[in-house]
Design brief:
254 residues, alpha/beta, Rossmann fold, 8 helices, binds NADP nicotinamide-adenine-dinucleotide phosphate
């Protein structure tokens, strides 16, 4: 029997990148995986890949920036499975026009809602199910920009991801007595479709040196499989060839 047999994992942003890799890794460990994103088609592709590897997956599309959509998905999970043991709170986005010079109120709202408000909606919706079983793991994808503000990622994204870090720590402060554990994952650059929204395009060669979706997916799987008496509160994961460090080294040489 695999470690997560009998467990239900809800993975947001599961149609691509880190979420897709995490969903596949959790399914391999035996979890039944619920897949959410706005577009149905990529979720169906993830579900098909999970089923090919012998796993269980259910597709539940929805826009997580809308509280009623989140409530509907969690009600469906509760009705079908009667539990939600793992939340991979991973959906997120960024915009092309991200500097203060360019930032419009609508864009700021989209980035904050798409990375922070949506994460709050998913968390508040699953907590009652987890409390019911006095058990649960929440794994949130923040960013290195959630630890160190970054102009490359932009002010709205940096602020939202800092919020995700704070959200995760407060969960442990309050929910530890209910057997609920929260881990915030802060990745550096990962070669996923989100990079297509970078103002300065990222080459194929640069993407090849970055962390890959499977690297972060495997880390998420590891966190989800930890025994219930411990929590990894926060973890950073970066490519060894860290472009920020390399740029600093090159500046030092000049
Ligand atoms: N790649 C990196 O370098 C990096 C670094 C640090 C942190 N992160 C974070 O990692 C997480 C995963 O991103 P990724 O890199 O794997 O990029 P990605 O492939 O673009 O994945 C983001 C996923 O989130 C979904 N999504 C976005 N907004 C949504 C919404 N409102 N409702 C439901 N689903 C939504 C998208 O699907 P739909 O478009 O179909 O909704 C997409 O599948 C994000 O939180 C991102 O900020 C990424």
């Amino acid at each position: 029997m695999e470690v997560l047999t009998g467990k239900v994992a809800w993975v947001t942003g599961a149609g691509s990148g880190i979420g897709q890799a995490a969903a596949m890794a959790l399914a391999k460990e035996g979890a039944a995986v619920v897949l959410t994103g706005r577009r149905r088609e990529p979720l169906e592709e993830t579900a098909a890949a999970i089923k090919r590897q012998g796993g269980k997956a259910v597709v539940k599309p929805g826009d997580l920036m809308k509280a009623p959509a989140v409530a509907r998905i969690v009600a469906d999970i509760d009705k079908k499975f009667g539990r939600c043991d793992i939340l991979v709170n991973n959906a997120g986005l960024n915009i092309l026009q991200r500097s203060w010079k360019q930032l419009s109120p609508a864009d700021a709202e989209q980035v904050i809602d798409g990375n922070l408000t949506s994460a709050f909606y998913c968390t508040t919706a699953v907590l009652p199910l987890m409390r019911r079983h006095k058990d649960g793991v929440l794994i949130h994808t923040s960013s290195m920009a959630g630890r160190q503000p970054s102009l490359l990622s932009g002010p709205a994204y940096s602020a939202a991801k800092h919020g995700v870090v704070a959200m995760s720590h407060t969960l442990n402060m309050e929910e530890c007595v209910n057997g609920i554990r929260s881990c915030v994952v802060c990745p550096g650059e990962v070669a996923t479709p989100i990079l297509d929204k970078r103002p300065v395009p990222v080459t194929k060669e640069e993407r090849g040196r970055m962390a890959q979706s499977e690297d972060v997916g495997d880390l998420i799987r590891y966190i989800a499989c930890l025994p219930p008496h411990i929590v990894i509160n926060e973890v950073m994961i970066n490519p060894t060839w860290n472009r920020g460090y390399v740029a600093n080294l090159q500046r030092g040489k000049a």
